[in-house]
């Protein structure tokens, strides 16, 4: 049933292009049986065939532009999203990158067989050239898929990093004119920058005269972290707010002394409660315990 | 510096910054970009006004300032220093977050300058604390 190739003398690239256009249906049918397509398009086989056709069209277009080795060729643009979806679907199913790559490689033999069946009378040299061109094209397809899958992953990581930055730095209003930032996790330059910005913004917003930086959730304090803290404190002071650093655990206090870190004139307290007590005292606010005959102030901690 | 057309680029950039007197306190409001020469002029004006008026406090409102460079930062620190010599105190008011971050990154933490969130708070601060002051805390930062 396969008609003979009419122009055996054409260049291998054009030959491949013509072959892909001619055998579009058959290639797509065979690909639909391959694990890669079968696993991604589980709903119906027709869907897999359609997806396969789209890929074949893209490959033909790339061959037409004679850019077999270029993963950025215009032909791939349209199927890139689909390929990325297939790649990520397979990775999500628990396949390693190498396994996905292997499944992609498995797409080549059926096409190659079809090609060889199409060129029975062609000179051996021409056949070899065509097969090589096809291999190159399929290799490029593999690169495109892997590339897209990787950049998807990178985008996901970037997005999550951004979310982490936002999530990890809430500014809490504790009282009129008192805000607190519970710092959690390691403080690096990027995070301390975000902390500083959000804190300063909320100082303006809340007209807060006192800001408490609670470092209970910071696992280690080294000279860099101390420097970041000092910067935040200095910036807050420039705006007219006083910063108190609280939540210094015994072990951290020891480490800081061992390292010779000096927080200078920054007011420090052991716990957030102590810091709040200090600030309330500074503001002249006392907490009255109802049981203690009305006048006993228990919240204000002496300096 | 184009001295020929003051204010030709929008905001009035050259000339004097007015120093307002409110009882014992001098109020200075900085707006927009400040020319180096204007800042220096202000420094001189302030010193003279303090001596003549016997003011005990200077409030500098920087809420209208979007850019502070190292020069202006130094001028502000110098103003605080000279005001201190003349037995008055300087309070910097309403600095924007971005400006504060920039100054800290430049290493200009302005020790010895008092700060406040609003002019109201600044006036209260100056009223509360007599020149003899228990405000030792901030002075100690001058290392």
From TrEMBL, chain B:
Source organism's superkingdom?
Answer: Bacteria
User: Which InterPro entries would you find in this protein's record?
Assistant: Bact_StressResp_Reg, STAS_dom, STAS_dom_sf
| Residue span, STAS domain | 15-126
- Annotated Gene3D superfamilies: STAS domain (3.30.750.24)
Against Pfam families, the record matches this protein to:
STAS (PF01740)
PANTHER family in UniProt = RSBT ANTAGONIST PROTEIN RSBS, RSBT ANTAGONIST PROTEIN RSBS-RELATED
Q: Protein name, please?
A: STAS domain-containing protein
